[in-house]
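Sorry, explain these C-alpha cells?

***
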Amino acid sequence: MTVLTKEQVLLFACEIPGQTWYRELSFLYDAVAESKRHVEVGVYCGRSLFVASHGMQSGEIIAIDNRQGMGVVPVDFARDMTNLVIRHANPKVNITLIEASSVDASRRRECQGPFDSAFIDGDHSFEYVLSDIESWLPQMRIGGLMMGHDYWAAHLGVMDAVHKVFGGCCNVVRDSRLWHTKVGVPWTYPWVDEVSG
C-alpha cells in the first residue's frame, strides 16, 4: 500500500464534494494525529472523513449522518461518494458509518466513549448543534479534542451553541470556520450534571 503524504491527502480531499477549506482540512489532519478513536457528526460526501482517516495512524472512526437536509445533492449520490471515500481511506483505520441522528447514534453500544477527538459538522441550527455537542461531550476523554465546522456569521446557530456550552473556552483556527477545545473537567460545562443524572 502506498502511503500518501499530507499534501496528497489534502489535494485528493479537495476533489471530494464538501465545504471544508484546504486550511481547515490541514488543521483536522494534524489535530487527529494522536487519536485512536474519533467521531464525526455530519459526513456529507466524506471529505473531512477521508482527511481524518489519513491523519490518524491507526484506530477507529465512527461516522454519523442522518442523510437529511442534503440540499441540492441527492442522498444516493452522497451515500455513494461516502462509500467510495471509505474504500480509499487509511486501511489502518476502521470506519463505521451509521445513518442515524447524532443523538440516537450516541446511545448505541458501539458508539460509547471514550473518544480522543470529535468533529461536529451536522445540521447547523442552534438546537441541533447543541444536541450534537451535548451528546458527544460526555463521551470524550479528558484532554480530548472537540472540534466543529462553520463557526462564522453565516451560521449563528453554530456560534451560539458553542458559546452556550464552552463560553470562552473555545478557540477558532485563524482564517477558517473551525472551532476547537480541549475537553476539560466535566463540571466546567454547566449542563453535564443535568444530562448525566
In short: The first helix runs from residue 6 to 13. The mean pLDDT is 89. The first strand starts at residue 37 and ends at 41.
